[in-house]
């Protein structure tokens, strides 16, 4: 591992690019685009050493690496430090961000002709915010990046958006701002509970808060993140924001920004407040499952392609949340993979919608039909992406969805998993119905008869995504393997603390293998380090009630739970 | 040779990729078709090599696994990309590559001049790849890749003529109904994995390991649930009640596709799956009963619909549904070997029938085209007397029809008779056995009837074509007739590898090779039944009697069809006018599609619309916008306080101080 502060370089390269853009003439669009493109490509290249360097021999396997910690602000009682680091969970989200950005910028070459300079600056600032969010280990720093991310997106929707852009931008801003203010209050409260020091989450992980405090703080964090995810019923900003946002905005919003919400759960809300988390697991699982079914049904009836994709996002993120709350290796891995897959597939879908919107300036399904004949290359790519979104085996979508469902089935969330599995039917219904109406049938609309197929630039935008769709579908192991140790730690963090907190308190411990409340019992009093399916547990666990034998501990790292 | 098993699915995949990426540039039909057919032929050769090597080993050693790489590994869950070679998968590999090759060859002729020629072969090769994964995967998840992959290709090929709305609809319907089945498959997989893992610390989805640990599966509710979940998957893929309605619509695809996917291979995947997991099904009599009843009901039900259809391909489609019902009946009564045997013979004769009908449609299409007629080339009411013009097609079609009707000596007779006998004599369902047998026997009669109705309407009698069209009607070229002859030959002799015991004894100790071949695959189930002291009916006389009965039924059906459609063609019309309601109901497929629309599709759409326009827009956004309105309202009022005059502010400050002091004093 190099001694270079790689993460800082990574975060601030786009910022330097944005500053550079300030000095470029606003009318030389070509230069502006090239610089922005070059900066994001450089950022992507800079992020690659993270993949090779992470979990290199001699490092703290699964822990936070590439650490940087500098005391930063010390104002009165508050001490904030500039504390960065990544683990297997954030690593891939950072890579996703740096990977999507050049694609997003390339997609704007012909789509945005006005205020190009400002647009590019917004995009680059957005990248700073997003990378920063994923790599901050200081809660306050995290909050700052979280807010930085919000502002460029607000402008992107509000200035370069569609007809209804102001409404959508304000709705987006207010929804998210409400959540983040609650989070701010909670994180300050958390800071005082910790009794001074800095805002490092590593330190906060050590706290054993009493259940009541945990509950209130969890609620504040969970609400902020739930809005961002978005979870039912807080999702209504998303269809509006997506529909009105310019293509690049939609792509980034779907591919990366929504992940900040789910990442927030995995990194903060769940491990910081394990007991409260366990208490609210049934509620969140319920909302996730409702989200999957509800959003799928609503997506089915949409007349605007972009809105349909937006609702499908809600459904996909329902899967992510369900998997993460299964709180076992398969579930969390599946949830993490689903985050990346959704980034790739839904990003690609928004690009595709952007392609036809640029050509026809409409997104209504009824305006199309029969495009497959006119645009065969487009049709092929659209179809691949559609099936990836449906989760066809062999594409990326399947691996994540499958592990989510498997993980939640094995955990106490079995019934939720069964209902969620029916989502695989609905996703096929709404995606294929849309695909049929847009691409198949006769080419009736005269305006569609002169449509041109994708040009070289557009193909170049899509190819990396299509490559990933297949790569992640066929060989997801490198990613799963590098995430597994960190996920183990996260699970152990969320469960061990609960046990520690339970021992002194007089919380009646459930014997393992007894189903009390779905989603909670598996944590029960089962020692977290117990190997899965331990004969003793297995014997006790009757077929109908055996959530105790959760597969824990990735084979590669047995019993790393004492690490805490 | 075993180590090369990965070549079997890989060859068609390469063919598919080449045609998909470069086909548009290649343009030359011979090259494209050659690549596609050649790649399947290469697989066929490898499959033959594997078959021979397998045959050279003693029975109990005929299991081989080859792992390529680990696909997914997370926690206790592990799924490999790996292959399993045993008699069952070798049989399936032979069927898929062998018949697949013939149909690829046939397609070169049939699809000649079509616009998307390369696209067709790309899909067809991709299908072959998926199907080969399905039947040779060594674990449930790889099977599932193939399972969904064939669904995808089926979707693509049904919707091949995508400019037709009906084709797009049919493709979508097929995929969605298959997805309903996949829902069951996934749940079955989850339950099985979880059940063995939690209770016995066996975390596996590998077939060989599952089979090894079959004793750990204790009969009970969970095992029944697992079986029924998987069976739901099978009803989707193999078009059984209640998910069969997509298959007749799938006839929108090109005819060779119907032959390969919707008759010979893909639709039998469900049967293969149950055969592969026989060691689980044998543990659940309830699940077996459900499988048997659904199979028998489908066999009978689809056969009734088949009697009233006029589209040549639709008759064959319902016939396929019905024959698949037989295979499930076999599975449900524990006659796994008989079911797989029928799968194989059905692949021979049904592929032959479909390809034959394709040859007829091909010729009809050209003839009608010359006449500039708009008449439907698939409607049997436009045909008649074709045997004079198309002798090869007629000959092969007739042989295959005899085979499916159950005429003694042909392939279908042996397999169907075995199933009927087992339905009657099996030790699983005692009281229901007679009903199962009766349903199967009646369906057999109906099969003979509608198949000969088809033959009579198409090939016999006076032609209903105009003279000009008749003049232009020709026999198809060799690429079409050669596969027909091959398949007809197989339909003729293919049954002799599975001669029933009682017949074999009469014919001079002729063993049932097929049963012997598959014995190791079903050994566990056989032993399990013996260990549990289950006894079926054993009576040679009874078996002869039943065999005779089914032969009589078959000939009765054939005779009736001849009587009604050749000798006295006016009777059917009189009959339908006598009971118009019944005829209408049968002709409209008992209105099942309409019922499904009414019960599932429309309510779903209405619910989606309500949730969107009712809940999302009115409730959630209503609350959000309502809060915004309230805030705006309040700020509107409060705005008046912000006058900007210093004395007003000073006044309110004083007022505040007075209030606070007052509260403090008088508290």
Description:
- Chain A is mainly alpha-helical.
- Helix content of chain A is 67%, strand content 4%.
- Chain A has helices spanning 6-22, 29-53, 88-106, 116-135, 139-160, 165-194, 201-204, 211-228, 237-244, 247-272, 274-300, 305-326, 329-360, 371-374, 376-390, 396-410, 414-421, 423-439, 456-474, 477-502, 535-540; strands at 65-75, 78-86.
- In chain A, a hairpin with a 2-residue loop joins strand 1 and strand 2 (78-86).
- In chain A, helix 4 (116-135) packs antiparallel against helix 5 (139-160) and helix 13 (329-360) crosses helix 20.
- By secondary structure, chain B is mostly helical.
- Chain B has 2 domains: 65-81 and 166-578, no CATH class; 594-666.
- Chain B has a two-stranded antiparallel ribbon.
- In chain B, helix 1 (7-26) runs antiparallel to helix 2, helix 15 packs across helix 17 (411-425) and helix 17 (411-425) runs antiparallel to helix 18 (433-459).
- Chain B is globular.
- At the A-B interface, helix 6, helix 11, helix 13, helix 16 and helix 17 of A face strand 1, helix 5, helix 6 and helix 27 of B.
What is the structure about, briefly put?
The complex is a heterodimer of chains A (564) and B (667). With 564 residues, chain A is mostly helical.
According to DSSP, the number of beta strands of chain A is 2
Straight-line distance between termini of chain B: 98 Å
Amino-to-carboxy terminus distance of chain A: 24 Å
Structural class of chain B: mainly alpha
Strand portion of chain B: under 5%
Count of alpha and pi helical runs of chain B: 28
Quick one: how many beta strands of chain B? 2
Instruction: Report the order of strands and helices of chain A.
Output: HHEEHHHHHHHHHHHHHHHHHHH
CA-based shape of chain B: globular
Mean pLDDT of chain A: 83
Helical coverage of chain B, percent range: over 70%
The number of helical segments of chain A is 21
Order of strands side by side in the largest beta sheet of chain B? 1-2
Sketch the major β-sheet of chain B. 2 strands, antiparallel
Structural class, judged by helices and strands of chain A? mainly alpha
Secondary structure: helix percent of chain A: 55-70%
Average pLDDT for all residues of chain B? 87
| Overall 3D shape of chain A | globular
Rg from alpha-carbon coordinates of chain A: 23 Å
The largest inter-chain interface, given as chain pair and residues per side, is:
A-B, 74 and 63 residues
Total domain units of chain B: 2
